[in-house]
Write a structure and sequence with these properties.
2 copies of one chain form a homodimer.
Chain A lengths: L21 E2 L4 E5 L4 H14 L6 H4 L5 E8 L6 E8 L8 E8 L10 H13 L2 H4 L1 E11 L3 E3 L3 H5 L3 H10 L18 H4 L6 H12 L5 E3 L3 E7 H5 L7 E5 L4 E3 L6 H19 L9 H18 L1
Antiparallel strand pairs in A: 1-2, 2-4, 3-4, 5-6, 5-9, 6-7, 8-11, 9-10
Helix pairs in contact in A: 8-10
GO molecular function, one term (chains A, B): inositol-1,4,5-trisphosphate 3-kinase activity
Family (chains A, B): Belongs to the inositol phosphokinase (IPK) family.
Protein name (chains A, B): Inositol polyphosphate multikinase
Chain lengths: 306, 306
């Protein structure tokens, strides 16, 4: 029996008669193929990637397992429809905290259709994609058995400025997340979730090294999922920190050039997370350059007037 | 006595009564302040950067020395005008080969004026900036004492596709550059110019490490100059390979975020140069992903029709 996934934090949802992904009880995730080119592009990517011998194992582990396509009763009642069959990434996880981060300051390929580019550019400009090189697409943070998850509004999350994004990345690994954004996050689980040889930072750095070299694929509008289990961390156990890449409907041929757009955004995210590990307290940024520019202007006007 | 520089490969030139930079015979370079905001922005950057104690010496050596501003007789006959006084980067060099590479897939800051952004976007799209993350702005390659330099047309250079950019980066370090693009470049000087502990790749990697960390400045429309002397290389001497960053009229505050746009483009250039060192022969890129997509489409249509 298929049902809507419990821990989906972004994307279309299979609720209220709408079309969305489904999961079964054996760890498989059924993603309806989007009707336009996107569906076939995503199948093409998984088909190419899963058989690509140039991708090393320590990198392919960051991608969901791919089990082909299958006709499945769609969640919107439209009957049997083709679905991608993938690994259910939160299967077997208990109360996972999950963050979906769309990587890249640009979510569109140069060769994409003009109207699609226009739509994306607007979203990139209105979200943190353009300034930060990534944007939060959605998240859920486990608070406690009583209060469950904190799952802020997606629209709000996507348009946050740098300082608020930094705060959410701290909140994600803090023990005092109840009452959401009110308290100063204690970053209690930062070192065990983000740090260490199996932590999220270490995984992101492995991914980065691959992106510095690979020229096979360019990933537009693709997300990295960050996942861990807070209750395990609270009990002094490994929190099963894990990153996975998802959403490949806009993957293009690399044609011998690295994916500088994805890589730049990934490096920016890495810097945010590194800073939480090395200096968890907030730091102020100054407006020095603009102050100097004003002083220069005044002094130049004086010189020219002499 | 000031005169137009001999080895300028990009930007406005002080020839034919036009406004452009000048050099003296003591190693100084006089750059007229652009009348609009750009002039004061560039002075503000040099003032801030040259006094910034957070910038380590092994990084500040990649920037021209800054000697303040000075009123100088402008090259266009408009009288005494304020100029930036900088280090003349090709002073004391004999027949330098020079390449000016504008870094970043985007040459505009998110906070730049709308009309300026529109102009830049068009140029980024029509040049290799958008696909490659950088574009060649101009170059001169020394051929021989008889034929002098090969200095291709700037307009042509700026719009080259990836394969031609790769070819020019090979040509730059080849001994058989006469007759320009006709012969297959032999990459005779690749290992001595690009490679080694003091070569260009090594310097670019040092710069990259700084960009992975620094959140002080964002450099838009800034260029990296690659320079060396072919005659020294031919005689088995060190070719004085050097990189320098130039053009800071569009530097903005980093505000705690890395310059992911510059970093991505720099990594792309690094990959091009690394490949010339490791596999100088051309390699073919395949259109595998698109072929698979067509196959997927056909098979899905068949499945749904059943």
């Amino acid at each position: 029996m298929l049902k809507a996934p419990d821990h989906q934090v972004a994307g279309h949802k299979a609720l209220g008669g709408k079309l969305g992904p489904l999961v079964d009880d054996s760890g498989r995730f059924y993603k309806p193929l989007q009707g336009d080119e996107r569906g076939t592009k995503e199948v093409a990517f998984y088909t190419s990637f899963s058989s690509n011998i140039k991708v090393p194992d320590h990198i392919s582990r960051f991608f969901p397992e791919f089990y082909g396509t299958q006709l499945v009763e769609a969640s919107d009642g439209s009957g049997m429809q083709p679905h991608l069959v993938l690994q259910d990434l939160t299967f077997n996880r208990v109360n996972p905290s999950v963050m979906d981060i769309k990587i890249g300051s640009r979510t569109w390929a140069p060769e994409a259709p003009a109207d699609y580019k226009q739509k994306c550019m607007k979203k990139d400009r209105e979200s943190s994609s353009l300034p930060l090189g990534f944007r939060l697409s959605g998240l859920q943070i486990f608070e406690s058995g009583e209060t469950g998850f904190w799952k802020p509004d997606k629209k709000w999350v996507q348009s946050l400025p740098a300082d608020e994004v930094r705060l959410l990345l701290k909140k994600f690994v803090s023990s005092n997340t109840s009452k959401a954004m009110d308290s100063k996050p204690d970053c209690a689980f930062a070192s065990i979730v983000y740090g260490g040889s199996t932590g999220i930072l270490s995984q992101l750095l492995e991914l980065k090294a691959w992106f510095e070299d690979q020229t096979i694929y360019h990933f537009y509008s693709c997300s990295v999922l960050l996942m861990f289990e807070k209750e395990l961390a609270s009990n002094g156990k490994s929190p099963r920190s894990e990153i996975k890449l998802i959403d490949f409907a806009h993957v293009y041929e690399g044609r011998g050039v690295i994916d500088h757009n994805f890589l730049g955004g990934l490096c920016s995210l890495i810097k945010f997370i590194s800073e939480i590990l090395t200096s968890p307290e907030d730091f102020a940024t100054d407006g020095l350059l603009e102050d100097i520019q004003i002083a220069v202007l005044v002094s130049l006007e004086r010189v020219v007037a002499l």
